[in-house]
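Example record used in the benchmark description.
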Amino acid sequence: MASADPPVCRAPGGARWRASLWDYVAIVGWLAGLTVLGFVVRSWSGPAFVPPSPPLVAVDAAVLSMTVFPVWSYLTAGEGGRAGAAWGKRRAGLRVVDAGGGRASYRRVAIRNAVKLLPWQLAHIAVARLMLGVDAPVTVGVTYASALVLPPVSIAMAWRDPLRRALHDRVAGTRVIRVSGEPS
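Model output (structure tokens):
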């Protein structure tokens, strides 16, 4: 008979990479669907559908609502749910837990994924503003550089930490563990 709480052992790096790749399959599927939808809408509406110069906040909100927010929701629903894992982590036999090894709350998981996806949102903002030519090159450069620097810093933190906690895990008070009896 299986215990309700898994033994708390750190997740092996290879399993975390596999879990990320599986989750990216789901994310790319969503983005591919958005791309197809965009082409369909554009073919029906023609070029007149695009406003001449949308307000910057509207561009940022549109990008957030169609790309980052659905991914954040997918990860948060899975990792905050009973399984403690989105599809990729479940396939790799991993679970997100709180610092003590218990079930992570939705609040912790929501914070974890907001920090995890911050570089993606920063990159969207930088590219959109570069394309629209609305911010100073230094502002765009710093925003984009931050998007490029944060992931390797987070990976380095996880690599050096005995519990393999990345930046988003440290901020949220979570960690990723291997579930006993599951493949790693």
